Task: inverse folding
């Protein structure tokens, strides 16, 4: 099945359907599936007591020791994922076609759908007209639908305070979880970086998904163009053809700086061009994250099934 | 390629307009919302726009559109191989036929001349491309060249002048041919080659004399009536042919003198001779004009005097007479000796013998007595040609003499006509050349008469007058306009 273009996905009004299409696209793709299911972790044995469920008896141990022991599991509680969305006016670009905001909404919805389907908790945090607008991280189908409905109402407008929004989103997580920030990261670059580092230091798994359109990367205009800043409204008359080359160099340097600093801070980073099909962009990101998790976060791997009650480490959403 | 309206290239000056617009214009400063301006450098803003061309692709398309439009206005005409072949196949040919006496004599008389010319022109029309458009008959081919060149200048095909002549040296020269533009072909066709000897071929001479007599007599009959007179053609002192000619006695009218010829006569002959001269005036209208009409010799009343037999001072006059020595006198005398009407009028009767007088005989009576003598009158420094008439000269002879003198134009070199020296075939071959087929080039004229290139119009005049191929360029202009529109809109949209 060929990938759905951003235009097609963005044209679907039902965000849940769009998210499901993206996720289904992930599963039916020709690449290795990034999903391995969720897990619980064995904790200890205790002597069998009357009334214990026989299915938890350790029959092998009984064969060796002639004693009855019941297996106890540490329950891997639901992973909490907080999606932090940049809702500033700069995300409304480009004005024709699929905007970065719409693209981010679809990616966020797909991630929420994916996380919720695996039994984890997912929440959303953004800033709207100066105020924080959020949905706490919870699991369950009804919550997912409420979250998607809230995502669907997001309209990019004004500016945002990335540091404050990220910090508040991390605080909403009851325990260590995953904070995924979807933004162009144009605003308050240093403060944003500092806050992300702080979130990492608090034990959260942080991911930067940087969304950029092709026009932002290449400045494809020619002649005299009065560029108007989407957030501040400031206008600047430029000879687009003359400055395009320098502009591209500057943007490339900025993206490279974002990437290297994220790696240095232990932040998962991905640049997502908005002209890429959402499922392809998401699959590439998840596969890359899965490989990195397998290499660096083996302690969080688990494959057993069952129930328990203890806390566990936080695997990446959708990655083993 | 030929440009039919080359002045249109001035329109290339309009190319400066789009260049200036793209160089100095601010361009369409459209507003574009953009996520952030943080990557724009202020130092690269407005100062750059006044010294740099912007929208080079658009500028190139606009310049190309204008250049193509100007080229289309210049009306190009591509000279394809097929068009050149068609051009070479067409030919505007003009034939100049030399009708001078030497040619007529060379081919054996007027009838043979006419027949020979017709056959020659027909052969030209069938064997050479393009046929014959115009045929000019003249006794002086050299004088017809300017008119021929003028006519050819209006023709669009390849052009050629063919000259049919015996090519005696006085008829045509390299200087005459030099007046023909270099791109006009020259074809020289000689006729009368079989007659190589001087004009002493008696048979041909008699035939020519008979034909001339018939023509002159017919002219005379038209003027005076239908009385039959017997005339005799003389050749080499013997009667070789006789022709019945109608003659008449004209009713008497008011006698008038000839402005060209002074008449010295007594009372007895005066009326008679004036009547005869008056008749001559009607035969040859030019008789009444003044002597300046003679192009070469320029006869005037003071130059010629006719002395009648009863002129009172005839004897005294004869003491001052001598044999003619001047060239124009000799030429006129030669012409009169060849004039059939004069000769036949004299030879029709016999005359009594008279004392020998000083002078050259012009005509003889039938019995060999000179009827008219020519002598030079050199009194008082004058130089006049005097014709001494025998006392028995009939009025018709006086009429013939007056008509012959009046009709003598002196334009042709009579002596040369009688003893022609013809151009050699080698000289003619050097002067001949083919009509040019390509602009600025003559196919075969390295040794022939040369003219400057500006004298002749372009040999590709057909390309200048045919429909231009500019429509293809206009299609290109339309295509470029479409491209320009697409480029402009894409630029605005971007």
Result:
């Amino acid at each position: 099945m060929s990938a759905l273009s951003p235009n097609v996905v963005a044209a679907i009004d039902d965000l849940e359907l769009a998210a499901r299409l993206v996720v289904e696209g992930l599963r039916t793709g020709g690449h290795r599936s990034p999903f391995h299911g969720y897990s619980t972790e064995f904790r200890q044995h205790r002597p069998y007591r009357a009334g214990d469920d026989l299915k938890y008896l350790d029959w092998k141990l009984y064969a060796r020791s002639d004693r009855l022991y019941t297996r106890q599991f540490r329950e891997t509680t639901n992973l909490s994922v907080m999606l932090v969305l940049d809702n500033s006016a700069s995300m409304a670009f480009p004005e024709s076609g699929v905007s970065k905001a719409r693209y981010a909404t679809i990616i966020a919805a797909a991630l929420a759908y994916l996380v919720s389907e695996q039994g984890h908790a997912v929440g959303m945090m953004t800033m709207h007209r100066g105020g924080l607008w959020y949905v706490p991280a919870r699991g369950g189908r009804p919550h997912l639908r409420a979250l998607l409905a809230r995502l669907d109402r997001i309209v990019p407008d004004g500016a945002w305070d990335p540091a404050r929004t990220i910090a508040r989103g991390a605080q909403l997580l009851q325990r260590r979880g995953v904070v995924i920030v979807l933004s162009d990261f144009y605003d308050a670059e240093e403060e944003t970086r500092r806050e992300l580092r702080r979130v990492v230091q608090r034990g959260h798994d942080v991911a930067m998904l940087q969304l950029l359109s092709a026009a932002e990367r290449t400045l494809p205009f020619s002649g005299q163009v009065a560029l108007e800043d989407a957030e501040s409204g400031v206008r600047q008359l430029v000879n687009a053809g003359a400055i395009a080359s320098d502009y591209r160099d500057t943007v490339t340097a900025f993206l490279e700086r974002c990437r290297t600093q994220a790696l240095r801070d232990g932040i998962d980073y991905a640049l997502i061009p908005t002209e890429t099909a959402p499922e392809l962009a998401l699959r590439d990101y998840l596969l890359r994250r899965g490989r990195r998790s397998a290499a660096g976060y083996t302690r969080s791997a688990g494959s057993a099934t069952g129930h328990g009650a203890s806390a566990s480490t936080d695997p990446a959403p959708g990655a083993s | 390629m030929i440009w039919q309206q080359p002045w249109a290239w001035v329109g290339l000056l309009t190319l400066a307009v789009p260049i200036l617009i793209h160089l100095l214009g601010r361009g369409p400063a459209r507003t574009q919302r953009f996520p952030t301006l943080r990557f724009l450098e202020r130092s690269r803003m407005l100062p750059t726009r006044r010294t740099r061309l912007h929208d080079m692709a658009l500028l190139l398309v606009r310049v190309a559109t204008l250049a193509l439009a100007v080229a289309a206005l210049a009306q190009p005409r591509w000279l394809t191989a097929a068009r050149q072949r068609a051009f070479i196949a067409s030919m505007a040919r003009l034939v100049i036929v030399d009708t001078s006496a030497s040619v007529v004599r060379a081919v054996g008389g007027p009838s043979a001349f006419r027949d020979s010319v017709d056959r020659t022109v027909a052969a030209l029309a069938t064997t050479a491309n393009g046929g014959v458009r115009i045929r000019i008959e003249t006794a002086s081919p050299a004088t017809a060249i300017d008119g021929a060149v003028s006519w050819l200048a209006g023709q669009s095909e390849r052009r050629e002048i063919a000259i049919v002549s015996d090519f005696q040296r006085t008829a045509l020269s390299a200087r005459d041919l030099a007046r023909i533009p270099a791109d006009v072909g020259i074809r020289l066709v000689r006729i009368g080659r079989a007659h190589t000897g001087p004009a002493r071929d008696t048979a041909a001479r008699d035939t020519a004399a008979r034909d001339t007599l018939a023509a002159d007599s017919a002219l005379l009959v038209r003027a005076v009536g239908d009385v039959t007179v017997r005339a005799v053609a003389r050749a080499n002192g013997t009667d070789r042919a006789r022709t019945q000619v109608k003659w008449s006695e004209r009713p008497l009218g008011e006698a008038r003198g000839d402005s060209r010829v002074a008449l010295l006569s007594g009372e007895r002959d005066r009326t008679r001779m004036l009547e005869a001269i008056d008749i001559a005036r009607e035969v040859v209208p030019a008789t009444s004009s003044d002597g300046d009409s003679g192009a070469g010799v320029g006869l005037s009343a003071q130059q010629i005097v006719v002395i009648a037999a009863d002129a009172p001072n005839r004897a005294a006059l004869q003491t001052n007479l001598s044999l003619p020595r001047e060239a124009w006198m000799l030429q006129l005398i030669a012409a009169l000796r060849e004039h059939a009407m004069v000769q036949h009028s004299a030879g029709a009767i016999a005359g009594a013998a008279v004392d020998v007088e000083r002078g050259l005989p012009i005509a003889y009576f039938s019995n060999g007595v000179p009827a008219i003598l020519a002598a030079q009158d050199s009194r008082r420094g004058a130089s006049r040609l005097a014709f001494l008439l025998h006392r028995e000269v009939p009025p018709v002879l006086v009429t013939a003499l007056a008509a012959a003198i009046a009709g003598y134009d002196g334009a042709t070199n009579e002596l040369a006509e009688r003893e022609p020296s013809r151009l050699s075939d080698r000289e003619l071959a050097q002067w001949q050349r083919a009509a040019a087929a390509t602009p600025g080039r003559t196919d075969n004229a390295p040794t022939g008469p040369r003219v400057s290139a500006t004298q002749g119009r372009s040999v590709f005049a057909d390309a200048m007058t045919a429909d231009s191929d500019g429509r293809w360029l206009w299609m290109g202009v339309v295509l470029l306009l479409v491209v320009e529109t697409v480029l402009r809109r894409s630029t605005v949209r971007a």
In short: Chain A touches chain B at residues 90-91, 93, 95, 100, 184, 186, 216, 220-231, 234-239, 241-243, 246-247, 250-251, 254 (CB under 8 Å). Strands of chain A lie at 41-47, 69-74, 80-85, 121-128, 131-138, 178-183, 205-212, 224-229, 235-239, 268-273.
